[in-house]
Amino acid sequence: MISKSQIKFIKSLQLKKYRIEEQCFVVDGEKGVGEVMKSDFKIEMLLVTESFRERHEQLLDTVDGNIWVVSEKQLAHLSSFQTNESALAVVRQKPNQVPTLGQNEFILVLDDIRDPGNLGTMIRTADWYGIRKIVASQHTADCYNPKVINSTMGSFTRVHFAYADLLTLIPKWDTSVYGTFMVGEDVHTQSFDKRGVIVIGNEAKGISSEIESLVTHKITIPGVAGAESLNAAVAAGIVMDNWSRLKK
């Protein structure tokens, strides 16, 4: 049976302070837990219902961490989901390792994205379009926030995510830098090089003036008069869709 101290530990991981201290995070639900069991993330604790255990018996045999079978009521008490009838995992965070930029590769760069739901959606969308590396500014939302993890629907296991000082990192890549602005080249006609960076800015302020100075290609998403701007995650998805079609 899971102890009171273990319950307290799991609940504490809802807060960033304790996620940093413990270097762990929580994954909720059948989809996310199933993906993390198939990944190279290390599972420290796994709580599953009897029905989940029966459905995933072979996969559970591959887990090195401690596994408890709990009731749906116990699971719901610990989960960030309103309803969770399957599983919850406590997972070890990975070290923050800034990726390299390959010869025929694009990296998604996030300049101060604050909303966890937006961040999770961007990770999921990048995974869909085959962008496997994301680098974010230090003020971007915590990638291990439960809302981020849940929003990715398991894509966090396939996308390398890191935080870095963008002002010093981007010039080192010595590549084309595409950034979203209100005025720029139409994203539907913009050609993309084989190698480069796509920058998405803050939800309210857009790309900062410091990062703007590094952008080599300003692009815009044209729209019909009405809304003042697009949601950052939606804008990122539109840019990635056009990149996937128009890249050389």
Structure write-up:
By secondary structure, this protein is of the alpha/beta class. The chain has two domains: 89 residues, 60s Ribosomal Protein L30, Chain: A (2-Layer Sandwich); 141 residues, Alpha/beta knot, CATH 3.40.1280.10. Helices cover 36% and strands 23% of the residues. The strands form two sheets. The protein has a six-stranded parallel β-sheet, sandwiched between helices. Strands 1-4-2-3 form a four-stranded mixed β-sheet. β5, α7 and β6 form a beta-alpha-beta unit. The mean pLDDT is 93.
Strand count, sense and barrel status of the largest sheet are:
6 strands, parallel
Multimerization state = single chain
Strand-residue fraction? 15-25%
Provide a count of the helices: 11
Q: Would you state the CATH class of the largest domain? A: Alpha Beta
Number of domains: 2
**SSE series:** HHEHEHHEHEEHEHEHEEHEH
User: How many strand elements?
Assistant: 10
- CATH superfamily (homologous) name of the largest domain: SPOUT methyltransferase, trefoil knot domain
CATH architecture of the largest domain: 3-Layer(aba) Sandwich
Unreliable segments of 5+ consecutive residues: none
Give the spatial strand order of the biggest sheet: 7-6-5-9-8-10
